[in-house]
Amino acid sequence: MSFRKVNIIVLVLAVVLFLLVLHHNFLGLSSLLRNEVSDSGIVGFQPIDFVPNVPQQAVDGRQEEIPVVIAASEDRLGGAIAAINSIQHNTRSNVMFYIVTLNGTADHLRSWLSSSALKTIRYKIVNFDTKLLEGKVKEDPDQGESIKPLTFARFYLPILVPSAKKAIYMDDDVIVQGDILALYNTPLKPGHAAAFSEDCDSASTKVVIRGAGNQYNYIGYLDYKKERIRKLSMKASTCSFNPGVFVANLTEWKKQNITNQLEKWMKLNVEEGLYSRTLAGSTTTPPLLIVFYQQHSTIDPMWNVRHLGSSAGKRYSPQFVKAAKLLHWNGHFKPWGRTASYSDVWEKWYIPDPTGKFSLIRRHMEISI
């Protein structure tokens, strides 16, 4: 065999080897991308979207991804948009938004995000299957409002963000004025699956709800006349906490089966009526209070300055509102509604709906007049 033929054979073998290596790497990359956006495979949640095109400064392999979970119902979609906008514009961190919706809302949300200043955020839209709540919640004729399925999304964080070790949950009626990285870095004590802001903290004063008394301790949420509650030996005077904003250690959450524990108490309430009859807050609060009794860490009170929606009046000074890291309009007076305190602060982050489906109620009233 001539020297020239040997060279040709060697060259052909080298090309074949190169192509094999290239093919192997391509398959590995494809697998990695599929894993990056794949669903957890658990019934009840269906990923719809994944948008990875983010500003160059936010894409840094050295930065830890910060998962932020927000529920977005059709009638409150403007709230979720404003919350996301405020988070995105006050941080340079690598934030991934997990936006939980019901069927029919995804298209509206996607069009809103794609045609606004938020078109560069990283997000995933996840559909919430209401069948998950069968046998766990029931309508109470004594309560004026009907059950809102998405309020229970916070119970299923490890399913929503299956690959994360830590995540932030927040309601849609908030505005973030600080860097979300600081909240994410909240230290959790060993064995604690979550950190909340307690209702007895110094930033948010105790609130008196008409007909419910002081809504800042356990007796305001649980019926201590029920034997099952008394058997838990939880002090009725224990300070409650607000579950509208919290940081979760998902590794510990899964280890302690927190979701299963919460579902257990939801079912027991349906059977036995364990929640307080004068319950003024969300029906998601009582099971969380039971499961996390004396087993939770705390977040900086300035990261949940709340009760802005408890009345139309202004309870805080302008200086305090400006200094707050997170403002929370929990209560009946939402900032997109007819009357709300500090609505000008919220509206600074609101992005008008390009489809026209969502509009500020007070603006609509002004135009009508």
TrEMBL record:
Keywords: Glycoprotein, Glycosyltransferase, Membrane, Signal-anchor, Transferase, Transmembrane, Transmembrane helix. InterPro entries: Glyco_trans_8, Glycosyltrans_8_dom-fam, Nucleotide-diphossugar_trans. One of its GO terms (cellular component) is membrane. It is found in: Membrane. One of its GO terms (molecular function) is UDP-glycosyltransferase activity. It is a single-pass type II membrane protein. Belongs to the glycosyltransferase 8 family. This is Glycosyltransferase 8 domain-containing protein 1. It comes from Odobenus rosmarus divergens (Pacific walrus). The lineage of its organism: Eukaryota, Metazoa, Chordata, Craniata, Vertebrata.
